[in-house]
């Protein structure tokens, strides 16, 4: 699949509400590092769920992500590890997002494992447990409110 043409990412004021979560999908001898991006629910007067969904769509478009019901496109080198810390290049000329990750995730990525980036459009409370988060991810996938793609560390 050919990745869509990138668009301008949302500004840093919006991006400060984006949270990142990491995990590892183990498939036999192959491991895929997972990176889930979501926005917290509206917290400011100008924010609505529609505003957040639109911003997350722009975020996904800037990353050149594809629909989650299709094969994930290759999105170029979007993860960089510097001084042991992973950073997500989301298409902004000046800013990157620092990825808080376990050392085992960082080592996996540094050793060349693919990173599957998933962006959800529907807000998610960052304090939810793993079961509630899993249910939210599945609901976003089922409703088409998610985009994804694959990248590697350079």
Break the fold down into its secondary structure elements and pairings.
Blueprint: H1 12-15, E1 18-27, E2 30-39, H2 49-63, E3 66-67, E4 79-82, E5 85-88, E6 97-98, H3 103-110, E7 115-120, H4 130-143, E8 146-151
Parallel strand pairs: 2-7
Antiparallel strand pairs: 1-2, 3-8, 4-5, 5-6, 7-8
Keywords:
4 helices, 154 residues, five-stranded mixed beta sheet, three-stranded antiparallel beta sheet, alpha+beta
Trace the largest sheet across and list its strands: 1-2-7-8-3
Report the biggest beta sheet as strand number plus sense, adding barrel if it closes.
5 strands, mixed
Helical content stands at 25-40%
How do the SSEs run, as a string of H and E? HEEHEEEEHEHE
Supply the number of helical segments.
4
Stretches where pLDDT is under 50 for at least 5 consecutive residues are none
The average pLDDT value, as a whole number, equals 92
Q: Which geometry do the CA atoms define?
A: globular
Structural class call reads alpha+beta
Strands, count: 8
Rg (C-alpha, Å):
15 Å
CA distance, first residue to last residue: 22 Å
């Amino acid at each position: 699949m050919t990745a869509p043409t990138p668009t301008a990412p949302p500004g840093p004021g919006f991006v400060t509400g984006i949270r990142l979560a990491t995990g590892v999908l183990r498939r036999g001898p192959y491991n895929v590092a997972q990176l889930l991006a979501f926005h917290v629910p509206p917290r400011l007067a100008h924010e609505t769920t529609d505003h957040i969904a639109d911003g997350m769509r722009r975020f996904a478009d800037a990353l050149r992500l594809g629909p989650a019901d299709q094969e994930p496109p290759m999105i170029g080198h979007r993860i960089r590890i510097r001084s042991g810390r992973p950073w997500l290049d989301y298409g902004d000329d000046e800013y990157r997002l620092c990825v808080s990750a376990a050392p085992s995730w960082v080592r996996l990525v540094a050793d060349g494992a693919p990173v599957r980036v998933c962006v959800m459009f529907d807000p998610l409370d960052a304090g939810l447990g793993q079961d509630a988060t899993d249910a939210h991810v599945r609901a976003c996938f089922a409703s088409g409110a998610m985009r994804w793609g694959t990248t590697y560390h350079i």
